[in-house]
Amino acid sequence: MRHVLFIGEDTSRFINRNFYYLEQELARIVRLTVWRKSGNIDYILNRLETKPDFILILNDMGHQLFPMIKGLRNCSIPTGLFVTDVHRLVKIRENYINKNKIDYLFTIGWEKSVQTYPQFKHKLEWFPHFVHPGIYKDYFLEKDIDFLMIGAVNKTYPLREKIVNAYSKDPRFICYHHPGYRDFTREEEKDKRVGVHYAKELNRTKIFFTCPSIYNYPVMKYYEALACKTLLLAPTFNELESLGFIPGKHFVAIDESNFKEKADYYLANEKERQRITEQGHQFIQENHTVRIRAKQLMEKIECILESE
C-alpha cells in the first residue's frame, strides 16, 4: 500500500469541505499521514515513522499560502500541489513553485491554469471538482421553491447579476448570498445554509441558476445542483463539456438573452424538467464523486511513481 503525506489545513468545518472528504477517501485506499502546520519538510519527515512515497500539499484555501512548507527543492520525494482557484495568489504561487521545484500541479480549472501558468503546463494534472454523495443527493423533499440562486453576486459573476436584477420583484425567485469563505460552527450551518442544509435547499428547488464567472470555471455548483436533483440552468463552455456535462441532457444551457424564456418553459414542463434532472443526477453519481476522484488521483500518482 502506498504511503501518501497530505499537508493541508483542516477543512472539516470550512464552507468547502471537499478536501476533508478527499482525505477521508484517500485514507481508505492508501496509508495516509496528515500534517497541518507550516515547517521545513525535513523536520516533518523526521517525525514520521516511515518515508512517504508521495507528498500532496493543499495551501491555497485561504487568503495566503498556508501551511507554508519549505525545503522541498532538496526533497527527493515527488510532490504535488493542489491549485483550487488559479486566479488568486498567482505570483506568490508561481514563486513558491519555482523556489521549491514543485513537481506536479493538481489543478481544478484546466484552461485557466494553462493561460495563467504556460511555463508550468508540463507539470499540470487536471483534478476537477467532485461531490460527497452522502451529502449531495436526493433527499426526496417537496419541490416548493421555483427559482433559486445561492452564491456570490458581483462583477465576477455578470450573468448572476443580470438574473438577480431580472427577478428582483418576482416572488417565485429566491436568492441567498454567499456566507463567506470561513469555518462554520454546527449552530451556524442551518442559518447560513452550509453543508447538508445547503444540499437540502438545492433538493427543494425546481430550477437553480448559476454561472461559471468571468474565468469560465466549472464551479462546484454545476456538480452540486445536479447531484441534489434540481434542474440547473447555467452557461455551457468547452471545459465543462470536456468533463462530460451535456447541455439538454444533464442541464439546460442559458445565456443573458434567454434565461427567462428557458426558466419559464422548464417550470411549466415538469416531465422535461424531471427527465433532465434524473439524467444529471445519475451522471454525477457515476462520474464525479469523491470516491471516483480519489481513485483517479491515486491512479495518476501510481503512474508518476512508476515512471520515476
What report would you give on this structure?
By secondary structure, the protein is an alpha/beta fold. It folds into 2 domains: 3-129 and 290-307, Glycogen Phosphorylase B (Rossmann fold, 3-Layer(aba) Sandwich), CATH 3.40.50.2000; 145-287, Rossmann fold, CATH 3.40.50.2000. Helix content is 39%, strand content 18%. The strands form 3 sheets. Strands 2-1-4-6-7-8 form a 6-stranded parallel β-sheet, sandwiched between helices. Helix 1 packs across helix 12 (290-307). The radius of gyration is 20 Å and the shape is elongated.
Short structural description:
This is Spore protein YkvP/CgeB glycosyl transferase-like domain-containing protein. It contains twelve helices and 13 strands. It is α/β, with parallel strands linked by helices and 308 residues long.
User: What overall form do the CA principal axes indicate?
Assistant: elongated
Biggest sheet, open or closed, and with what strands and sense? 6 strands, parallel
Q: Any idea what the CATH superfamily of the largest domain is called?
A: Glycogen Phosphorylase B
Total of domains: 2
Count of DSSP-assigned helices: 12
Helix content: 25-40%
> How many individual β-strands?
13
Instruction: Give the SSE string.
Output: EHEEHEEEHEHEEHEHHEHEHEHHH
What proportion of the residues form beta strands (DSSP E)? 15-25%
- The CATH class of the largest domain, by name, is Alpha Beta
Q: Class by helix and strand content?
A: alpha/beta
CATH architecture of the largest domain: 3-Layer(aba) Sandwich
The chain-level mean pLDDT equals 97
CATH-derived topology of the largest domain:
Rossmann fold
**Span of the ends, CA to CA:** 17 Å
Radius of gyration: 20 Å
**Reading side by side through the largest sheet, how are the strands ordered?**
2-1-4-6-7-8
Which spans of ≥5 residues are poorly predicted at pLDDT below 50?
none
